[in-house]
Design goal:
Helix content: 25-40%
Distance between the termini: 20 Å
Radius of gyration: 22 Å
Largest sheet: 8 strands, mixed
Amino acid sequence: MTAPAIRTVTVPDHDLLQALQPAPEGITLAVWDFKSAPDGADLQDVEMAVLPYMDRGDLTEPLQSAPSLKLVQTQSTGYEGVPQMAGEGVAVCSAAGVHAAATAEMAVGLAIASLRGIDVAVLNQREGVWKPARFKGLADRRVLLLGVGGIGEEIAKRLDAFEVELTRVGSTARSDERGHVHSSDDLVELAARHDVLIIITPLSDSTRGLVGREVLAALPDGALVINVARGPVVDSDALTAEVVSGRLHAAVDVFDPEPIPAGHPLWTAKNAIITPHNGGNTGAFWPRIVRLLRRQLEALAEGREPENLVVRGAWGDGRTDG
């Protein structure tokens, strides 16, 4: 298949514009923040648009007002809702890989913070209280990892150093270089035998609400639930009920809805740690997203297929992620 010609590319801010200069020969870079007309190019000429990283909102109207748009690039690993906003026939590339190390750090960091009582120590510090205690720790814990993609693999690699008993779950049962991957159909049965559940599966129709009341109820008393995926993968009401009752612990970087509403009982639950969707948002993000975008521009200038095509659009029918 002949690669589509893409010559006019927009980025959402001037910092990215400057970081990507000089553009490869034949590529025109402009700024489009989706709030006003593109700066440096006519809207009718825009063929590729890089979306904002955080709080992008609903961009359906501006994206579908660009008649020549062929490709949308996210700055996030997740891309839920983007194909619908971009419209039929428009390809979508994710930023898979850019956030893997940072999100894996967050998952393991939340596990250590909760299992070693660091959250409790911080509260005691504010009260000027010295109160030694024995906490579970991460070593020897039975960890159930839901999600075996790029970030899941990075989490697994980091857990190797902590001497845990790791069980991995994917969409289907299979084997890889690490060993066996269980099917998500086994999730309830597996939950009953694990101390920690780490969630990093993508959000899709099949994973929405996957960690529901039955899975949470199957976890042993005192188990820890860590969500660094997307909030709707977990039944928020069921998780809140289990945590507020004191039966389960939670460490969540994502939730449904976001932000967590004021007055929500999870805010004051003693056995919960909440971080505000910071998983991939570290100092590693900027250089890694710039490197990815440079590779994308070089590929397009040379007529090659860009990386991380999750909706192929002009590069072929259908999605690449099944």
